[in-house]
């Protein structure tokens, strides 16, 4: 069985363990921080193969996120986003089948930076109490963010930061933000499994690696649930923006 595992030095295993903890924490507290896990996996494994290994861990994190925030989801938002997300996933599957590791990393990093800049600009020009509600109901925003989320989540499991920007633009409260994200990505990540298996991104080795890292995901999820109930709205929103920018810069430059 151990022959299926990648041959990595001790510090690399420690980093993978840290990435697993971050996956769990991102699901129950700070979605944008998951770009750190993406960067760690992509740095230690081939970028394409890392997406399959990370996907299983994300689904484990999704289970805890749904359990923690199942009552806070905005289902109209999820249903409105669904068609665009499916289209983005199809495009992402085609891109992943054709692109090499370097292109995967740089395209995702560039998309994330553009989304952050657009979101900050949109919030800056928005006025009045109804700005958040109009952002939620905007068809253009649903199509734009939804398709980008589907594409990035299929290519590099990086849909979380894109949707974080959408939820920030729509001014979701913390619990509604986390509840909607929990259900949204639980559905999306399970839907991605057949595509990832078909592309050969999930195999016996990646599943064994995931089995070793799942305890870290669980620990991170419980830690995130404790933190989320204590963080102020403004701090939460600022943290999401900062970690998304840092993750995007890493993917784009390294």
Automatic annotation (TrEMBL):
InterPro entries: TM_pro_TauE-like (IPR002781), TSUP (IPR052017). The keyword RNA-binding does not apply. The chain crosses the membrane at residues 12-45, 52-69, 81-99, 106-125, 145-169, 181-202, 208-228, 235-253. It holds the Pfam family TauE. Its main location: membrane. It comes from the Bacteria. Keywords: Cell membrane, Membrane, Transmembrane, Transmembrane helix, Transport. It is a multi-pass membrane protein. It is found in: Cell membrane. Belongs to the 4-toluene sulfonate uptake permease (TSUP) (TC 2.A.102) family. This is Probable membrane transporter protein. It comes from Leucobacter rhizosphaerae.
């Amino acid at each position: 069985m151990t022959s299926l595992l990648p041959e990595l030095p001790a510090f690399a295993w420690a980093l993978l363990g840290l990435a697993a903890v971050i996956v769990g924490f991102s699901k129950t507290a700070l979605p944008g921080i998951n770009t750190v896990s993406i960067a760690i996996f992509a740095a230690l494994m081939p970028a394409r193969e890392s997406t399959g290994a990370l996907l299983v861990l994300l689904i484990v994190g999704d289970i805890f996120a749904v359990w923690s925030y199942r009552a806070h989801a905005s289902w109209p938002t999820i249903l409105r986003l669904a068609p665009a997300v499916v289209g983005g996933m199809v495009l992402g599957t085609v891109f992943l089948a054709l692109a090499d590791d370097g292109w995967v990393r740089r395209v995702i990093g560039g998309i994330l930076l553009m989304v952050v800049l657009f979101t900050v600009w949109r919030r800056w020009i928005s006025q009045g109490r109804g700005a958040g509600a109009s952002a939620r109901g905007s068809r253009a925003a649903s199509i734009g963010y939804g398709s980008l989320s589907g594409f990035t989540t299929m290519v590099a499991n990086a849909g979380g930061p894109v949707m974080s920007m959408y939820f920030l633009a729509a001014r979701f409260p913390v619990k509604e933000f986390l509840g909607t994200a929990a259900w949204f990505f639980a559905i999306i990540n399970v839907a991605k499994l057949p595509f990832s298996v078909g592309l050969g991104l999930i195999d016996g080795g990646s599943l064994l690696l995931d089995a070793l890292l799942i305890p870290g995901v669980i620990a991170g999820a419980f830690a995130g649930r404790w933190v989320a109930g204590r963080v102020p709205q403004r701090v939460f929103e600022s943290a999401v923006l900062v970690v998304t920018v840092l993750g995007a810069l890493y993917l784009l430059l390294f």
